[in-house]
């Protein structure tokens, strides 16, 4: 029983570890690996809260751990990724600018944590750091075809949108984890490309994470239909 209660926290720690690995890959020039690990972190982030409710394992520790994991995987890791792929050209200025992303993200998370009980469950105030970090990861993954100026504009826009008062639909009533469908389809396409001709260029974790997550989505979809019936 105690192990079951610990499962959501283990998933959250897996998210945090993906952020750590992403930073390591980015520092060693493995930019595709780094971007994929951030996306895998998104999958894990969409699972921990649902698993906690399913297993009746909600806890204050889990909520605090989730915020700490998010600031690393979707704040620090994307900023390092953008720095090593583009902002490094501007020297110390680029390093300083890249560091703004986790600062805005941390402020956004802190504001969310103290106001989550007061705001509607139908929307987020400001862009969630998970979505912002995932967008930067995808832009970096396709950096060879996306002009760098677009990455710069999006990077700047995400910083301010995270701390803005704009209401973003949460889609929490949809019987699938947040970001689940988009991330799963994207990673499924990446997995297909790997198998077809670029085997070995991405972390082997993707071979385990994507099928497991697809199975999890299928379970949630079937369970949601049964609950409605």
TrEMBL record:
GO biological process: phospholipid biosynthetic process
EC top class, as a word: transferase
Keywords tagged on the record: Lipid biosynthesis, Lipid metabolism, Membrane, Phospholipid biosynthesis, Phospholipid metabolism, Transferase, Transmembrane, Transmembrane helix
Topology of the protein relative to the lipid bilayer: Multi-pass membrane protein
Catalytic activity from the UniProt record: a CDP-1,2-diacyl-sn-glycerol + L-serine = a 1,2-diacyl-sn-glycero-3-phospho-L-serine + CMP + H(+)
Enzyme Commission identifier(s): 2.7.8.8
Source superkingdom: Bacteria
GO CC aspect terms: endomembrane system; membrane
Transmembrane segments: 20-44, 90-109, 121-139, 145-164, 176-195, 201-219
Similarity comment: family membership: Belongs to the CDP-alcohol phosphatidyltransferase class-I family.
NCBIfam families: pssA (TIGR00473)
Listed name of the protein: CDP-diacylglycerol--serine O-phosphatidyltransferase
Source organism per UniProt: Cytobacillus praedii
